[in-house]
Amino acid sequence: MEQEALVRAARDGDGEALGELVRCFHGPLTAYLIRLGGDRELALDLAQETFCRVCLHLASLEEPEAFRVWLYRTARNLFLDHRRSWYWRRVSIRPESDGREQPGPGPEEAAIRRDEGEWVRRALETLSPAHREVIILRYYEDMTLGAIAKVTGLPLGTVKSRLHHAQRALAGRLRRETPAVVLKGRWQGL
User: Fold this and answer.
1) Residue 61 structural domain
2) How many CB atoms lie within 10 A of CB 35?
3) Mean pLDDT, rounded, of the chain
4) Which uninterrupted H or E stretch holds 151?
5) Element of type H or E holding 164
6) DSSP string of 38-71?
7) From CA 30, how far away is CA 43, in angstroms rounded?
8) In terms of pTM, does the model score above 0.85?
9) In this structure, are residues 42 and 84 in contact, taking their beta carbons and an 8 Å threshold?
């Protein structure tokens, strides 16, 4: 069933459609939250809270095509609320599984990917939270600039500017600390 049809059915009280939406988005949403904060347990808690809030307010969603943006905005707001709370402790971004199955690479490619992922994670840690967020939404969550603007509540021009500056900072960091062979790959265009 198409996402919009699932949202409409869930909005109309179809529990199976709601369950399918949760199954489709739980892994990617949790991975997004892990990348924002680096703590898997916190990300799982925030993802659960996000889905609870979505369930409570799904009937008020007027545009089913906006579900993904609404879901990520809800998760982002919960994350920011948590970060502002008195018990927030800064943690580093750690490699975690995002719950999506990937075809298994060979041993050499797996080692290269693991190293590349570690270099990128370290470089992401050096970015400001605002710059890290737009990189995560654009490249890890594959959102359009317009969707990022809606998730973050920022004007489109601000999103473009942040993404541009974040890409430059990330690329500069990767050039300084990453072996040249990796830069010939997918991160060279940043």
Assistant:
1) 3-84
2) 21
3) 78
4) helix 145-152
5) helix 156-177
6) --HHHHHHHHHHHHHHHHHHGGG---GGGHHHHH
7) 6
8) no
9) no
Walk along the chain (190 residues) in steps of 10 and give the mean pLDDT of each run. Answer: 85 88 92 84 91 88 88 91 62 45 55 61 82 88 89 93 90 70 48
**The tokens of 77 are what?**
């707001």
Residue appearing with tokens 């982002």 = 76
Q: What is the rounded end-to-end Cα distance, in angstroms, of the chain?
A: 36
Radius of gyration of the chain (CA): 18
Structure tokens belonging to residue 166 = 């974040």
- Which tokens in the block code for residue 26? 């739980």
Q: Residue 72 is part of a domain; what is its CATH number?
A: 1.10.1740.10
Query: Of 84, 119, 136, which residue constitutes the final position of a domain?
Result: 84
Going 39 to 44 to 45 to 51, the CA torsion angle's sign is positive
Per the domain annotation, does 79 fall within a domain? yes
What CA–CA distance (Å, rounded) separates 136 from 177?
Answer: 20
| Contact call for residues 45 and 91 (beta carbons, < 8 A) | no
The total of structural domains in the chain comes to 2
CB atoms under 10 Å from CB of 71, counted, come to 23
